[in-house]
Design brief:
heterodimer; A: 97 residues; mainly alpha; 3 helices; B: 429 residues; alpha/beta; Rossmann fold; ten-stranded mixed sheet; 12 helices
Chain lengths: 97, 429
């Protein structure tokens, strides 16, 4: 009984995460600005970590939690890197103009 | 049991992440998107990971899950801060309603877009709007140019003692200042400029969330600065207007709640001018409608609230409700210089009897005004007629108590509302 409920919950969470990923991918393409894309990328990192967690439960394999840890790390670094890039460009253009 | 908890956490986490994604797609500017992505995202992801740990249940997974959640809680605020900072520097647009403290000096804003031509849809963010700065407004001064359109038409048969201009921020403030100066010039009166900052409205107690006191104080400080600057700008404007006419005004600056004492003057030979729909918060807190209500409650007479692009003062329509307060006000006002040699009509409203109207009319008639009795308007079915009669006047003269008493009563929507709608100047006596 409880296993069936857990199965349903995993399916629900999987569907919600998939839908959320689609929406965030849409924002990643739409923008409209660079910084909006950076925000979407950050959100995508969080989403992938969550998906890895749910996958670990779905296939009953703890290794996917390690994947989640890795993705969370990289997602943070990516957000910081993109932000630094935007700042550096903005500063450079400010000096020029 | 652990399975049930895991299921609950997964459902909650999935829902929150989905909501966060919708927020990222739907919020109007980059800062709000960042807010949705990081705050809801970190909770949703954390719940999903915890759910997985509950479902798997072995020790190694628990340690890793705890690590991930701790890591998320440490890094996501940093990431969001860095992204927000970058968004600011890249001049990401704000929604127009955003209120901001001045930060221009600390971090420069330069428009930056890596893919300026790349647009997926026609969706566009609001264009960057110039923010309201807490700095002095710059007003162009043209000292040698006569710029008071109302001044040429204005004539006063008798002299005025004093014209007071209440400085309240309003789009029409310049025109109103010109009008006050013109009145002072035509009536040979001294001009007094009252710049009041109603600080009780700005830093008074307001509802705030727990822990919001610091920001509330900060916001109040910013608004107070804005209000002071606007009052100073309005005063400067009025002083310049006066200077072009060769009048040296008396300028008073007051902070605090405006009271009747600030407007003390000889009621029969003075005039207080104030922009209709302006208030002493200098436009910082009140909407125009609320400001109009506050003006109605202001205990200062005779208070002229000019409206329209070129207000005229030839045809006056006096309202009388037959009450004692209204009668006393008409009596007191009968000798006012503004009435002399003008076309004056008197209308009875709200159950004003024929005799009361005639009595008031004869009292005015004794002063030799060109007087017309405009009739009596007392019921809901006469509201249109009343509005039409109001529209034929230049200035509507009434005692403020009359508006209080018949606030909602006689015309179904309140006399004050009808009078406001006609867009005519109002003189409160």
């Amino acid at each position: 009984m409880t296993a069936a409920i857990l199965h349903l919950a995993v399916v629900f969470a999987g569907c919600a995460l998939a839908l959320a990923t689609l929406i965030v991918l849409f924002v990643l393409v739409r923008g409209p600005g660079t910084i909006d894309r950076a925000v979407a990328l950050d959100m995508l990192g969080l989403l992938l970590a969550a998906i890895a967690g749910v996958t670990a439960l779905a296939v009953d394999n703890g290794a996917f939690v390690d994947v989640a840890l890795g993705i969370a790390l990289i997602g943070f670094l990516a957000a910081v890197a993109v932000a630094r890039l935007v700042e550096a460009h903005a500063r450079a253009e400010g000096r020029d103009g | 049991m652990a399975d049930l908890v895991a299921a609950l956490l997964l459902v909650a986490g999935g829902s929150i992440v989905l909501l966060a994604a919708i927020g990222v797609a739907r919020f109007p500017d980059a800062f709000m998107r960042m807010h949705a992505a990081t705050k809801a995202g970190v909770i949703g992801t954390g719940l999903c990971i915890l759910g997985a740990a509950f479902g798997l249940g072995d020790q190694a997974t628990w340690i890793k899950a705890a690590l991930i959640v701790a890591f998320l809680f440490v890094t996501t605020p940093i990431a969001s801060h860095v992204l927000g900072r970058a968004a600011w520097q890249a001049a990401a647009p704000f929604v127009p309603q955003t209120r901001l403290p001045p930060m221009e000096i600390e971090l420069q804003r330069v428009i930056f877009d890596a893919f300026p031509d790349f647009r997926f849809s026609r969706h566009r963010d609001p264009d960057p709007v110039p923010r309201q700065e807490a700095t002095m407004l710059v007003i162009e001064a043209k000292p040698n140019e006569a710029r008071a359109p109302a001044a040429t038409e204005l004539r006063l048969a008798a002299g005025l003692d004093e014209v007071m201009l209440a400085v309240a921020w309003h789009p029409d403030a310049e025109r109103v200042a010109a009008l006050a100066v013109a009145f002072a010039e035509a009536g040979g009166a001294r001009l007094k400029i009252l710049s009041i900052v109603d600080s009780s409205l700005i830093d008074g107690p307001t509802a705030m969330p727990i822990g919001g006191a610091h920001y509330a104080r900060r916001l109040a400080r910013i608004r107070l600065t804005q209000a002071r600057d606007k009052a100073a700008a309005g005063t400067r404007l009025a002083t310049m207007q006066a200077a072009t006419r060769g009048i040296a005004p008396i300028v008073l600056h007051i902070e605090g709640k405006p009271v009747a004492g600030h407007f003390a003057c000889d009621r029969q030979r003075s005039l207080i001018v104030m922009p209709a729909g302006g208030w002493f918060d200098q436009g910082v807190t009140l909407t125009e409608e609320k400001a109009a209500v506050a003006q109605l409650a202001l205990d200062a007479t005779p208070l002229l609230l000019p409206r329209g692009t070129a207000p005229r003062f030839d045809r006056l329509l006096m309202l009388h409700d037959g009450g004692d307060a209204s009668e006393a006000a008409i009596d007191r006002f009968a000798d006012h210089p503004l009435l002399a040699a003008r076309h004056v009509a008197i209308a009875g409203i709200a159950g004003c009897s024929e005799t009361a109207l005639n009595a008031a009319a004869s009292r005015l008639g004794e002063r030799g005004h060109r007087l017309e009795i405009a009739g009596r308007f007392s019921g809901r079915d006469e509201a249109d007629e009343f509005a039409a009669r109001l529209a034929r006047a230049d200035v509507i003269v009434a005692n403020r108590a009359l508006f209080d008493a018949s606030w909602t009563s006689i015309f179904g929507m309140g006399t004050w509302r009808i009078v406001q709608r006609t867009d005519r100047s109002i003189l409160l006596i």
